[in-house]
Amino acid sequence: MIDWSPLLITFKLAFVTTCILLIISIPISYWLAYSKWKIKPVVEALVSMPLVLPPTVIGFYMLVAFSPSNSFGSWLEEWLGLKLVFSFEGLVLGSVIYSLPFMVQPIQAGFANLSPDLKRASYVMGKSRFTTLIRVLLPNIKTSLLTGIILAFAHTIGEFGVVLMIGGNISGKTKVASIAIYDAVESLNYDAANTYSMILFGLTFMILLAVYLLNGGYLKKIGRND
Amino acid sequence: MAVTSKKSAEMIEIDVQKELRSASGNMQLDIQLSVEQGDLLTLYGKSGAGKTSLLMIIAGLMHPEKGKIRVGDEVWLDTTKGINKRPQDRDVGLVFQDYALFPNMTVRENLKYALGRNQSKSIVDELIEIVDLSELSDRRPNTLSGGQKQRVALARALVNAPDILLLDEPLSALDQEMRTKLQHYILEAHEKFGLTTLLISHDVTEIIKMSDYVVQMDQGVVLRKEPPATIFTNERLNAKFQFTGEVMKMSSQDFIVIVTVLVGRELVKVVANDQEAQGLQVGDRVLIASKAFNPVIHKIG
């Protein structure tokens, strides 16, 4: 019998990460889509860095930054009781940074593709920016939101470098499925590695299939035929 | 059309300057315009003359570098005093060229969304009635035709009971029949709600039919503001009266031939004598030009 905890941790991590990302990505994407500030390209570049940077680089710097042996890490631990190295909270933070572009980019594109007149029309009707965002803009970029959610979720499941660096490899706490597979292979336990891999393979395929079905409008067509 | 219900000496005074950037280079928008409340004005001029920008500035969606906008006793914009009312606080209704209906809401929801906090919902039903949309009120905008969308956009712009109605080329995308219908809706709303209406149009017939005044714009400035008859009759006298078209129909009556010619989208009837009509047939390209006050007709090529 395999140890299910790596899979549970993986999905718990993906779920928590996706929720946090959704909340922080909406304002970031909104700003990136509409702002005319000159520093915008800098922010865009920073948000997209995890796309090209080896995950181990992010993991390494987070490890250095949050280590209790330096002042920032010890301050966090003393004042906020937050231990970010080798803990689940640390994994979440690492994953949020690492999966940020996968959530921000679809939502930003969604905003940018909406006619600017929708927003203007709402303002002229006396509606605030917040009301406009909640009632006009977001409902009209549902597909983009969904794409972002699914990509961020799937990408978090596939993490390895960041979680290994910042999470260590603590069984039942920070050992996620991708690391468990690596461990199993190292100890020549191919059966366990195969089980984990099959489960991940099947789930990620289903998730991505869902994205393409939704974006292609296939589900709507099926719904209409009912 | 005369000034109606809201008879008031209140004026809308506009004096704004803004640098506009476009693909064809920069242009200085410099507008001085005063509008009497209750009038229907048409902004007329080449594309790129700054007409849409002027509407956006009045609505508060575009911010001029310098200027003042005063509506009656209210100051909407005064850059010297740092006053610039948000679009939310300006009493305007705006109909966009692309309609800007919210795709996630039905026709009725689109109108309801526009309601102010303490506004009675009865205005929504009333407006749906006025623009004949009762049967379509539960449909989503993407299932409507252009003319229907335009009616929803017009009704939605009126929900807030604005003082000023701004229409950015509301009719340009519609066919002739739908145009005539919508002109009627706009005029009806204009009179019924005592609006001051600013409309962008390129269609001379439409302008003559609808507006009290025409504001002719070019290169970001107002050339003149005159009743439509003055502007267009003068233009005709100065320009050479000549059009090209295609012969659609020829019918002989006694000594003359009546030739029906399609000029642009309009059918024009021209009287031709036997001599002129000789050799003409349906489908020919022709030139209609005026000799003194009497149009004559020539075959081209």
Describe the secondary structure blueprint for this structure.
The complex is a heterodimer of chains A (about 230) and B (about 300).
Chain A: H1 5-34, H2 40-52, H3 55-66, H4 71-80, H5 88-113, H6 116-124, H7 129-137, H8 142-157, H9 161-167, H10 177-186, H11 190-215, H12 218-225
Chain B: E1 11-22, E2 25-36, E3 40-44, H1 51-59, E4 66-71, E5 74-78, E6 83-84, E7 92-95, H2 107-113, H3 122-130, H4 146-158, E8 164-167, H5 176-192, E9 196-200, H6 204-210, E10 213-218, E11 221-226, H7 228-238, E12 242-253, E13 256-263, E14 266-273, H8 274-277, E15 285-291, E16 294-299
Parallel strand pairs in B: 3-9, 3-10, 7-8, 8-9
Antiparallel strand pairs in B: 1-2, 1-4, 4-5, 5-6, 10-11, 12-13, 12-15, 13-14, 15-16
Helix pairs in contact in B: 2-4, 3-4, 4-5
Could you please describe the fold and organization of this structure?
The complex is a heterodimer of chains A (226) and B (301). With 226 residues, chain A is mainly α. Helix content of chain A is 78%, strand content 0%. Chain A has twelve helices and no strands. Chain A has helices at 5-34, 40-52, 55-66, 71-80, 88-113, 116-124, 129-137, 142-157, 161-167, 177-186, 190-215, 218-225. Chain A is globular, with a radius of gyration of 20 Å. Chain A starts with a helix and ends with a helix. The relative contact order of chain A is 0.15. Chain B is α+β, with helices and mostly antiparallel strands. Chain B has two domains: 11-232, Rossmann fold (3-Layer(aba) Sandwich), CATH 3.40.50; 242-299, Nucleic acid-binding proteins (OB fold (Dihydrolipoamide Acetyltransferase, E2P)), CATH 2.40.50. Helices cover 26% and strands 36% of the residues of chain B. Chain B contains eight helices and 16 strands. A six-stranded mixed beta sheet of chain B has the order 7-8-9-3-10-11, sandwiched between helices. Chain B has a five-stranded antiparallel beta sheet with strand order 2-1-4-5-6, covered by helices on one side. In chain B, strand 5 (74-78) and strand 6 (83-84) form a beta hairpin. The relative contact order of chain B is 0.13. Mean pLDDT of chain B is 85; it is low at 1-8.
